From TrEMBL:
Gene3D superfamilies for the chain: NAD(P)-binding Rossmann-like Domain
Pfam families: Epimerase
Domain NAD-dependent epimerase/dehydratase: 4-79
Official protein name in the record: Oxidoreductase
Length: 298
């Protein structure tokens, strides 16, 4: 297949590009800068210049491909309304372009906010509907196109997609530990996160593109529940820092913006995903990656 990948030079997107090319697929990667274009060309993939605000570039990319993998997101923590607007507009134009083609449309989504009190499953419907909801309700919007001949597949990602070079949540936790001189967890540290290695996540997306049925929700989850205390202890060991409990009232001051996420349980099962795709994660665990030094550099 020839896949159009948005976010093709991002943390997960770049691994997806590598997975696709290694397994014989062609890639058309969206690039918003000269640096991104050069990185993609160095991998021998085709490049389309544009970004999430250039809807014509998204339409063109989708029209020229056999599959669309939408990974890009503004992640503007200071202006979440703009992030939500952009995400919804992007999903809308990509889906509209694919109407009647039965081509796969992989849409990235978070696991957070789906359910409370238990791990989320693939059968759980996202409560986010409409522009003013999380990510502009893009997950449900994309699924609305299934009856219109779009093979929509939702890929929900663990809060930690880890590995060497990660710039996600755990990177910020490690940075906070270096700044504060202590690796912290909040309260008793019993809050839990799901996790998946970056390589396993990329393989999941490739398998989803190749064979997931229309309307599927896939969970990129290798470890269902890693305690925040275990994460903090691993960071402490890797950085040679003490480990301590942080009062919930001091979380923002200690951790910065990531503190609000560190207080939340974000877990999910991937049982149905594994059965549907014959996907078996093989990469290191989150703690193993931390202890191996994946987060030791500033």
């Amino acid at each position: 297949m020839r896949a159009f990948v948005t976010g093709a030079t991002g943390w997960i997107g770049s691994a997806i590009v590598d997975e696709l090319t290694a397994t014989g697929h062609q890639v058309l990667g969206l690039a918003r800068s000269d640096q991104a274009e050069q990185a993609l060309k160095a991998k021998g993939v085709d490049v389309l210049r544009g970004d999430l605000d250039d809807l014509e570039s998204l339409r063109r990319g989708a029209a020229e491909a056999d599959a669309v993998i939408h990974m890009a997101n503004k992640h503007d923590w200071g202006n979440p309304a703009e992030t939500d607007r952009s995400e919804r507009a992007s999903v809308h134009i990509l889906a509209e372009t694919l109407v009647g083609t039965d081509r796969p449309f992989i849409v990235a989504a978070p696991l957070s906010g789906l359910v409370q009190g238990r791990p989320a499953t693939e059968t759980d419907v996202s409560p986010a509907v409409g522009l003013e909801s999380n990510r502009g309700g893009s997950e449900n919007l994309a699924l609305d196109y299934v009856p219109h001949g779009v093979r929509t597949v939702i890929a929900r990602f663990s809060p930690s997609v880890h590995g060497i070079g990660d710039w996600g949540f755990v990177t910020f936790l490690a940075a906070a530990a270096r700044k504060q001189g202590v690796s912290g967890y909040i309260g008793d540290g019993s809050t839990t996160w799901s996790a998946v290695h970056r390589g396993d996540a990329a393989r999941l997306i490739r398998l989803g593109m190749e064979k997931a049925p229309a309307g599927s929700r896939l969970h990129a989850v290798a470890e269902e529940a890693v305690t925040t205390k275990a994460i903090a202890e691993a960071i402490g060991r890797s950085l040679g820092l003490p480990v301590a409990s942080i009062d919930p009232q001091d979380a923002d001051a200690h951790f910065g913006f990531v503190g609000s996420f560190f207080t939340k349980t974000m877990t999910a099962s991937s049982e149905l995903t594994r059965a549907t795709l014959s996907w078996t994660p093989t990469g290191p665990t989150l703690v193993e990656d931390i202890e191996a030094g994946a987060y030791t550099t500033a």
